[in-house]
């Protein structure tokens, strides 16, 4: 059974070591939780790779260059050097993958890199970005993030970005938005997605979603993908089990969202892991455990079929 994972931070790790004058081999570097060897072991059929420029560590003047560097790493180190990895330029490309191939989708987490320059946004589209998260946790020129105390919504620029995403069949990711920004996006976005968020009713964390937000995503036929991160599964926890994840799955199913559920692991961006799922290879264990609680058809949906049904056609 294949898996489609809608979020990881491998590009940030691959870039970070370069500043130390080192280079990691994406094929098998132990530091990369989503390296090729582990993706294959976990039967991951499509992996989304996020461009992420930390606004708390990278100065405004350097953010665009950092984003371009990560896009170059995606193309040069992940796609071009690995015959089995195929660049997903159009959503239909996913359906053309051979059984032994892995689709690679380029995404953006946080609009800091473009500033207020929509030409840079167009450049990102040309580079292949297919999913766009307007914020990380703080505020930027597009919107307020999940941990911004002001908790405002979209700016005029943010609304323009969402409309351009619509025109280009690019997903608009709500995972790091403030509550008000979330609702602004839901009014405008043709293709919303929660790429790596969990249930706030179970774990009260600013990165998780309230029930009314989850219901809005369900009503709009948007993917709701769970992060495999104990901090988002259990309040204050640094460890979790598949049973804890199942609580989140059951909650969304009870809201009517069984056909929206998927996974966005957040591998390479998290500091602790679900037991026996330390990296992408752990998907084999996860799916086996899920089949003890859910039907094979349900697990197939969670693993890949739901998001295939919901992506732009």
UniProtKB/TrEMBL annotation:
Gene3D superfamilies: Metal-dependent hydrolases (3.20.20.140)
InterPro entries tied to this protein: Metal_Hydrolase (IPR032466), Pept_M19 (IPR008257)
A Pfam family assignment: Peptidase_M19
The protein's name in its UniProt record: Dipeptidase
Natural source organism: Oceanobacillus jeddahense
């Amino acid at each position: 059974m294949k898996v489609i994972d809608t979020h990881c931070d491998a590009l940030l790790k691959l870039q970070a070591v370069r500043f130390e004058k080192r280079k990691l081999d994406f094929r098998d570097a132990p530091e990369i939780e989503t390296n090729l060897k582990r993706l294959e072991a976990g039967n991951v059929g499509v992996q989304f790779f996020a461009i992420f420029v930390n606004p708390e560590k990278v100065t405004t003047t350097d953010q665009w260059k950092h984003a371009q560097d990560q896009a170059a790493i995606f193309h040069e180190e992940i796609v071009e050097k690995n015959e089995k990895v195929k660049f997903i330029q159009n959503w239909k490309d996913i359906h053309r993958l051979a059984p032994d191939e892995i689709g690679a989708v380029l995404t953006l987490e946080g609009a800091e890199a473009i500033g207020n320059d929509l030409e840079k946004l167009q450049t990102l589209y040309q580079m292949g970005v297919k999913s766009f998260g307007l914020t990380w946790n703080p505020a930027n020129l597009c919107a307020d993030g999940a941990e911004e105390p002001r908790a405002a919504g979209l700016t005029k620029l943010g609304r323009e970005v969402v409309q351009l995403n619509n025109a280009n069949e690019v997903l608009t990711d709500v995972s790091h938005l403030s509550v008000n920004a979330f609702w602004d996006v839901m009014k405008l976005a043709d293709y919303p997605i929660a790429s790596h968020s969990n249930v706030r009713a179970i774990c009260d964390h600013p990165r998780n979603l309230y029930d009314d937000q989850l219901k809005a995503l369900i009503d709009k036929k948007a993917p709701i993908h769970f992060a495999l991160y104990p901090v988002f599964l259990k309040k204050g926890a640094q460890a979790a089990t598949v049973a804890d994840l199942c609580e989140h799955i059951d909650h969304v199913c009870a809201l009517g969202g069984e056909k929206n559920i998927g996974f966005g692991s957040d591998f390479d961006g998290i500091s602790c892991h679900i037991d026996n799922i330390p990296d992408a290879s752990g998907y084999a264990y996860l799916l086996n455990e899920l089949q003890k609680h859910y039907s094979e058809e349900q697990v197939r949906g969670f693993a890949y079929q739901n998001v295939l049904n919901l992506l732009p056609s």
